[in-house]
């Protein structure tokens, strides 16, 4: 029984590790960002992100407050999230809703400590793109994912193709929007790992990469990458975490801090 509880803690810690608004459940720089699955049931999340950016066109900071939910049963799971955002760029402040996201995923192969599957995410252009609160187009992200975990550690990875439907010219000026920088279309990949350091505390690390492809492969849309470190805490059905995110390539932002609290039932 202790071994089962330890494995469940590792899986739950993985579910509470951060990716990026993000997202998106995901994380925060790449729209196909991924968090490993929680145990069976439903989870409600509340998250807050704050950060700063400095590019050739914009200097400023941003905040995002979002709510999300996940349902999981058997090999299937579904997620959704939406939130409010504030962005200050070049002295101009804008506040409004962001782009909502929904996703569906399925595990295709299971073995002790191993899962492999596919997923698809859809993001709607609700946020004001001119105010840098949204993308300005629909985004579809099919992806494949893999999870490995034992009683103390986990590793998760995903590879996705982020495809923009009806994309406008905003992306031609570089990463966009400022609150969730991205390029489109792009191949996107994330690798995340974590280990339990105390009974209820885990340490996590993550790296994410977006590689422009097709029409996006031009000097205005550089390859962007970021890395992060964080901690997550779990006590029964409650969990929380914090992550520090820093750019590695492309300067999508100067820094970001992501926080989340969740309740599973």
Could you explain how this protein is built, in words?
The two termini are 20 Å apart. Strand 3 and strand 4 (92-97) form a beta hairpin. The protein is globular, with a radius of gyration of 17 Å. A twelve-stranded antiparallel beta barrel has the order 1-2-3-5-6-7-8-9-10-11-12-13. With 265 residues, the protein is mainly beta. It contains one helix and 13 strands. Residues 1-5 and 7-37 have low confidence and may be disordered. The longest helix is centred in the N-terminal third of the chain and has 15 residues, at 2-16.
Give the helices and strands, then pairings.
Layout lengths: L1 H15 L24 E14 L4 E15 L2 E14 L2 E6 L3 E11 L2 E10 L14 E12 L3 E13 L20 E11 L4 E12 L11 E12 L2 E12 L5 E10 L1
Antiparallel strand pairs: 1-2, 1-13, 2-3, 3-4, 3-5, 5-6, 6-7, 7-8, 8-9, 9-10, 10-11, 11-12, 12-13
Number of DSSP strand runs? 13
Strand content: over 45%
In the sheet with the most strands, the strands line up as 1-2-3-5-6-7-8-9-10-11-12-13
Query: Oligomer, anyone?
Result: single chain
Main sheet specs: 12 strands, antiparallel, barrel
Mean pLDDT: 83
User: What is the 3D form?
Assistant: globular
Structural class: mainly beta
Contiguous runs where pLDDT drops below 50 for at least 5 residues: 1-5, 7-37
In whole angstroms, the N-to-C terminal distance is 20 Å
Using only CA atoms, what is the Rg? 17 Å
N to C succession of SSEs? HEEEEEEEEEEEEE
In DSSP terms (H or I, runs of 4 or more residues), the helix count works out at 1
The percent range for helix content is under 10%
């Amino acid at each position: 029984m202790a071994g089962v509880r330890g494995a469940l803690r590792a899986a739950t810690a993985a579910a509470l590790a951060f990716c990026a608004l993000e997202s998106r459940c995901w994380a925060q720089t790449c729209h196909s960002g991924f968090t490993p699955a929680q145990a069976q049931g439903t989870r409600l999340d509340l998250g807050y992100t704050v950060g700063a950016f400095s590019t050739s066109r914009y200097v400023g900071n941003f905040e995002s407050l979002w709510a999300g939910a996940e349902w999981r049963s058997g090999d299937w799971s579904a997620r959704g999230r939406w939130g409010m955002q504030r962005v200050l760029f070049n002295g101009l402040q804008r506040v409004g809703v962001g782009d909502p996201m929904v996703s569906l995923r399925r595990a295709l192969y299971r073995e002790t400590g191993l899962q492999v599957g596919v997923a698809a995410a859809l993001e709607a252009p609700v946020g004001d793109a001119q105010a840098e609160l949204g993308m300005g187009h629909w985004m579809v992200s099919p992806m494949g994912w893999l999870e490995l975990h034992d009683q103390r550690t986990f590793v998760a990875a995903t590879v996705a193709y982020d495809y923009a439907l009806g994309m406008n010219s905003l992306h031609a000026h570089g990463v966009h929007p400022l609150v969730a920088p991205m390029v489109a279309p792009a191949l996107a990949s994330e690798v995340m790992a974590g280990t339990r350091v105390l009974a209820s505390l885990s340490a996590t690390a993550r790296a994410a990469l977006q590689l422009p492809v097709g029409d996006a492969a031009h000097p205005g849309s550089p390859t962007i990458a970021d890395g992060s470190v964080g901690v997550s805490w779990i006590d029964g059905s409650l969990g929380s975490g914090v992550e520090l995110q820093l750019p590695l390539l492309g300067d999508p932002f100067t820094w970001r801090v992501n926080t989340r609290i969740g309740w599973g039932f």
